[in-house]
Amino acid sequence: MEFPSFDHLNVWRACANVRVWILFLLLLLLKSDIACSGSDYLVGLGSYDITGPAADVNMMGYANTGQIASGIHFRLRARAFIVAEPNGNWVVFVNLDACMASQIVKIKVIERLKARYGDLYTEENVAISGIHTHAGPGGYLQYVVYIVTSLGFVHQSFDVIVNGIEKCIIQAHENLRPGSIFINKGELLDGGVNRSPSAYLNNPATERRKYKYNVDTEMTLLKFVDDEWGPVGSFNWFPTHGTSMSRTNSLISGDNKGAAARFMEDWFEQKDYGKTDSVVFEDDVLLRRISNIIPSRHDNHHELLELATSFQSPPGRPVSKTSSVAKRVRSAHRKVDKPRFVSAFCQSNCGDVSPNVLGAFCIDTGLPCDFNHSTCGGKNELCYSRGPGYPDEFESTRIIGERQFRKAVDLFNAADEEIEGGVDFRHAYIDFSQLEVTISDQGYSEVVKTCPAAMGFAFAAGTTDGPGAFDFQQGDDKGNPFWKLVRDMLKTPSKEQTDCQRPKPILLDTGEMKKPYDWAPSILPIQILRIGQLIILSVPGGTILSPSL
Ligand SMILES: *[C@@H]1O[C@H](CO)[C@@H](O)[C@H](O)[C@H]1NC(C)=O
């Protein structure tokens, strides 16, 4: 397959040159892994704002009807990379500062890309995934369950996300240039804790023994290096929930991952790049608009003049070769072409990983919550987890963001394993309501089947990151007659479904509720991208990387 729009780059022309070919063949004979032009890929990165409506819209994540946006903590972005193999395949990965991607968003994005680029970008080779912030505007998903609290579909939320993804892919496309990709992995131990440690203990001991911790602590980072410009960005994956900001927060925020991305982009722009130990925050030197050395009275003209003259102007320096105006203009001119550094902090298998690392405590007594049910004196709504900046959620967001940022910088600076090999992709729709699964353990083997989706009573208890209301409890395997009555007014689960879901008592039979349209998805889009030895498996809610690296 040809890569139609990059012919003008003439990047691979070198390969057509006979002498280079001979040299190339010689190198092959020598079993060298040096490719014909020094880099194996075309790489492009892009980034665009997706902040959305900052007032009067319910926020996605906590399913809390009272959590309505009323301002901005910091803005949200979509960040994308494109990797293309010359005369081969190409793939796109988009990371959204949103709770998750959505199928309807992707359909719209692909429609727009088709109008612009023909068949270059399709649902097959574009993966879109979210960082799981719980502080972004909601209403952009197509299933009823996800838009109940936003009182329906919110066009403003939807449009800004579709638009931002399209724009960041266009930017990445226009930045496509020869480059290399490096990969590095490392452990980050203080970025998340298991928020359901009692549930984790229900896993068989033989399985638990395979892992050192009860959460995944690995961060994997890709570093993108332009042949001409040097490093142009990085994407990393690490699991921790976007719940540093609480269920009562009303400011739009990228939470800890959005913060980490900004810290890293700022760090790079501030030219600290290359100095491993120079990760410093300059909180203390923030410029104040009103200097506190100037007294507030207005009748002190004379004193102010004296104060002003007491400051000495710097003596100035003779113009050198590097500081001349001509040189500065030239370098500024050159910088216009330089792509902006893009750094994305992507979500992976964050299931029960909480950024509120101090643990869960009762807001009335200050004591730890009940271990098995996350309750306080039987009440679920009093049990809250604490972030490292407790009680300041902005501080917790900053700290967990900073921890991921620092780890990413370490991995970035030390990344030296190069990604090599072909680019490929697979896309499939898998019906999760009727999958057959073989369970085998020590000689025992049984084939079981999945069922349509259903939310259990424990779901309504929420988690310690955002407890639910009423008398629901985590770990509830019985249910309660009152809520079953309420449930039956919506939909009484069939006997088959009840048996299939057992021992989970069904609160909402979402997988079988179809009015006015589907309440929950049964069919999930699965996207697999391969770049050399790296395999990226992505669903709208998150991404995992090949464990075989
Ligand atoms: C939690 O539940 C397990 C299993 O039912 C039980 O053995 C354990 O004692 C309980 N722990 C606490 C602290 O209640």
The secondary structure category is: alpha+beta
Mean pLDDT: 85
- Count up the helices: 13
How many structural domains does the protein architecture include? 1
% residues in beta strands = 25-35%
The main pleated sheet reads as: 9 strands, mixed
First and last CA, distance: 28 Å
Q: Radius of gyration, rounded?
A: 27 Å
Level of helix content?
Answer: 25-40%
**In one word, what is the shape?**
globular
Please tally the β strands and state the result: 26
Small molecules in complex: 2-acetamido-2-deoxy-beta-D-glucopyranose
Instruction: List low-pLDDT spans.
Output: 1-37, 272-278, 281-295
Enzyme class: hydrolase
GO molecular function: metal ion binding; N-acylsphingosine amidohydrolase activity
Family: Belongs to the neutral ceramidase family.
Cofactor: Zn(2+)
Note down, in words, how this protein is organized.
- Keywords: Hydrolase, Lipid metabolism, Metal-binding, Signal, Sphingolipid metabolism, Zinc.
- Its EC number is 3.5.1.23.
- With 549 residues, the chain is α+β, with helices and mostly antiparallel strands.
- The protein has one domain.
- 26% of the residues lie in helices and 25% in strands.
- The strands form eight sheets. Strands 1, 4, 5, 6, 8, 10, 11, 12 and 16 form a nine-stranded mixed sheet that branches.
- Helix 3 packs across helix 5 (155-174) and helix 8 (255-269) packs across helix 11 (393-414).
- The longest helix is centred in the C-terminal third of the chain and has 22 residues, at 393-414.
- The protein is globular.
